[in-house]
Amino acid sequence: MLKRFTPKPLKEITIDGVDFRVKHTIRKKMKRIIMRVEQKNEILVSSAKVSKKLLTEFIQENSIWVLNQHSNIKVDFESGDLFYYLSEPYCIQHHDKVLCIKDKKVFINPLKAKYQSDSFYKKSAKDYLPSRVEFWKEKMNLDFNELNFRLAKKRWGSCNSKRNISLNPYMMKLSYKMIDYIIIHELSHLVHLNHSKAFYSHIAIFMPEYKKVEKEIKQLSLCLST
Fold first, then answer.
1. Confidence bin at 124 (pLDDT 50/70/90)
2. Which of 111, 118, 174, 183 reaches 20 to 30 Å from 55, CA-CA?
3. Do the beta carbons of residue 210 and residue 218 sit within 8 Å?
4. Is there a contact between 173 and 125 (Cβ–Cβ < 8 Å)?
5. What is the pLDDT of residue 72?
């Protein structure tokens, strides 16, 4: 008895020199081919069972659309991008080991980049920030309940009515002066749980140039968000 021939699925394709992985999901009742590009170098296709040749022709016919979608996807931690630590920019280079910084470059595994980066900032924050918080707490003659660390995209820190302070480990992207300002800012909320004139007057006692530092943080934040 002859075995039924099953063609190998299309797994890879090259369009104008760009290599793509192809993930084909077979849905028996589909009457047309649907294609998506949601990640760099990856094409998602859904259709009924079709031949490898037909699928290849369909993708090639829509190659301009595929390349446009591909180019519009922003990927973090690309080789050549900048990685900030204590306000210093380091050029990202890819390797297959743990994150390390050397000669104004940061070497990072692209497959684990987000995890390695976050772990680096968390460890750096836990190593450095508690002593600075303790320093400013004593200098400002204040006390708090707990100090926590939480990664966030939009807030550098917070202080609640329970006198708990939370600091964002991404602060380690900033300069020492900027870090001190954020700590002073959050500790000042122990006195004024708002952003009133009295609150900023309290900050000015310990950092008279706080407005300049605030502006520098906002300017650097724009670079960090791109």
1. very high
2. 111
3. no
4. no
5. 86
C-alpha closest to that of 122 among 172, 79, 71? 172
Say whether pTM exceeds 0.85. no
Domains of the chain: 12-71 (no CATH), 82-224 (3.30.2010.10)
Q: How far apart are CA 31 and CA 47, in angstroms?
A: 7
DSSP 142: -
Amino acid symbol at 117? S
Note every long-range contact of 25-34, with CB atoms under 8 Å and residues 24 or more positions apart, other chains counting: 33/58
* Residue 64: C-alpha distances to residues 61, 71, 73 (Å): 8, 11, 15
Q: How confident is the model at residue 4 (pLDDT cuts 50, 70, 90)?
A: low
Strand ranges of the sheet holding 157-159, from the earlier edge strand across to the other edge: 146-149, 164-167, 157-159
Nearest Cα to 187, choosing from 157, 215, 209?
157
* The one-letter amino acid at 25: T
Are 144 and 165 within 8 A, CB to CB?
yes
Matching residue, tokens 């079709």: 50
Question: What's the CA gap between 185 and 210, in Å, rounded?
Answer: 9
* Residue listed under structure tokens 């987000």: 114
